[in-house]
Design goal:
InterPro entries: PPP4R4 (IPR039918). The protein has 22 helices and no strands. With about 375 residues, the chain is an all-alpha fold. Helix 13 (about 180-190) runs parallel beside helix 15 (about 220-230) and helix 15 packs parallel to helix 17.
C-alpha cells in the first residue's frame, strides 16, 4: 500500500539520520509497517499513516493496530489530528463496538481540551458514537452546558441535547445570557419536546417558553414564537393559551411577527380547530391581514383562507354561514388578481385534496 505524503510537509532538507529513519524494509507488511511508524517513525511518516486510516481499516488485523493509533494520536500536532479526524469520520460507523468505545473515549478527551480548531470534527464523532456510553456522554453535556463554560461550548452543548434530551439542562439554557445559545435551545426544544410527557414538559419549560416568545433579541423571539405553536400540544391550559397567543401575534403590528405568522398561520389554525377558537374574532383579524399592503402577506393569507373554508366544510361546521356573499366576492377578487388561481391548486395538491376542488361551488352558492 503506497501512502501519499503531503507535498508541503515533505519540503525542506533532512539530515542523513532523518532520511535513514524514513527508509523502511519494503518486505514489511502493511500493518507491521504502520505499527512501527506510529511507535518509532518520523512525524512525516505518521502524517502519511493518519492520512490513510480508511485504507488501513480495510486490512485484516486493523483492530490490533487501533489501540496504538489511539495512544499515539494525543501526542500529535493539530494538523495531524485534523487529518486523523477526517479519516476517522469515514470509518467510525463501521468499527467494532470495542473500537467505537475507544474512539468515543478519545473524543471525550479532546472535547474536554476545548480546542476550537479541532472541535467541529470531534463533535461530529460524538454525534456518531454517543450511544456507546450514554453515562459519560451525559456527563460531558453537563460540563458543556454549565453556566461557567464559554459561549461556544454552551452553544455546542445546546445542540448535543438534541441527542440526549435532559430537561433540566434545557431549562437552564433557556435562561442563558447569550442570545445565540437561547436561539439554539429553542431549535432543540422544537426537536425533542415529544421526548417528555406533557406534564413534565409544562412543569419545567412552559414559563421559560413564555419568556422566550417575548425575548428582547429578535432572532430568539421569532424562533420561539414558531416553536411555541409547534409544541402547543404539551402545554397546560392549552385551549386558553394557544388561542390567546394566536390572536395576539396575528394582530401584531410588528413586521417580524407578521412575517412569522403569515408563514405558520394556516397550519396553526388547523391545529387549534379542536379547541373551538373565536371564529368571529379570527375573521376580523384575518380580513385586516388579508388586506395588508404587503402583497406577499395577502398571498399567503388568501391561501390560508381558502383552505380554512375547505376544512370547515369538510368538518360540517357552521363557520361557512358566517361568510357573507360580499366577503366571498372580495375573496375571489383578490384571488384572481394576486394568486392567478394556480397557487391554490398547488396548495391543494400538497394537501392531497385536489379531488375535492369541486366543493368550491358549495361555498359560492352559499
Amino acid at each position: 500500500m503506497n501512502f501519499t505524503i503531503n507535498e508541503i510537509r515533505r519540503s525542506g532538507t533532512h539530515t542523513e539520520e532523518e532520511l535513514n529513519q524514513l527508509t523502511l524494509d519494503e518486505n514489511m507488511g502493511e500493518l507491521r509497517r504502520a505499527q512501527y511508524i506510529l511507535q518509532r517513525g518520523h512525524p512525516i511518516q505518521k502524517y502519511a499513516i493518519y492520512s490513510n486510516l480508511h485504507k488501513l481499516f480495510k486490512v485484516s488485523g486493523f483492530s490490533l493496530l487501533f489501540p496504538i493509533i489511539n495512544e499515539d494520536l494525543v501526542k500529535q500536532d493539530e494538523d495531524t489530528i485534523a487529518i486523523a479526524i477526517k479519516e476517522l469520520l469515514m470509518i467510525a460507523k463501521q468499527m467494532k463496538e470495542q473500537e467505537q468505545q475507544m474512539l468515543l473515549n478519545q473524543t471525550f478527551h479532546f472535547m474536554k481540551n476545548y480546542n476550537l480548531k479541532l472541535a467541529e470534527g470531534w463533535f461530529e464523532l460524538f454525534e456518531m458514537l454517543y450511544c456507546c456510553d450514554i453515562h459519560n456522554s451525559i456527563r460531558l453535556i453537563d460540563e458543556l452546558t454549565d453556566i461557567e463554560a464559554e459561549t461556544y461550548w454552551r452553544l455546542r452543548g445546546a445542540r448535543l441535547l438534541q441527542y440526549i434530551p435532559q430537561i433540566e439542562r434545557i431549562q437552564l439554557l433557556c435562561m442563558d445570557k447569550d442570545p445565540q445559545v437561547r436561539f439554539e435551545i429553542v431549535k432543540t426544544i422544537q426537536i425533542v419536546y415529544c421526548s417528555f410527557t406533557p406534564e413534565k414538559f409544562s412543569t419545567y419549560l412552559q414559563m421559560k417558553i413564555f419568556e422566550l416568545i417575548y425575548d428582547y433579541e429578535v432572532q430568539v423571539r421569532m424562533a420561539a414564537i414558531e416553536m411555541f405553536f409547534m409544541v402547543q400540544s404539551h402545554l397546560q391550559d392549552r385551549e386558553k393559551m394557544i388561542t390567546k397567543q394566536f390572536f395576539e401575534f396575528l394582530s401584531s403590528q410588528n413586521v417580524q411577527i407578521i412575517t412569522i405568522m403569515s408563514r405558520i398561520c394556516g397550519k396553526v389554525l388547523m391545529e387549534i380547530m379542536d379547541v373551538k377558537p373565536d371564529i368571529q374574532k379570527f375573521l376580523k383579524v384575518f380580513i385586516s391581514f388579508a388586506e395588508n399592503s404587503n402583497e406577499e402577506y395577502r398571498l399567503k393569507m388568501l391561501i390560508i383562507e381558502f383552505l380554512f373554508l375547505y376544512q370547515s366544510y369538510q368538518k360540517k361546521q357552521k363557520i361557512i354561514k358566517m361568510y357573507k356573499s360580499n366577503r366571498l366576492i372580495l375573496f375571489f377578487s383578490h384571488l384572481q388578481k394576486i394568486l392567478k388561481l394556480g397557487v391554490i391548486f398547488i396548495s391543494l395538491n400538497l394537501l392531497k385534496c385536489q379531488d375535492k376542488v369541486m366543493n368550491l361551488s358549495y361555498f359560492w352558492e352559499q
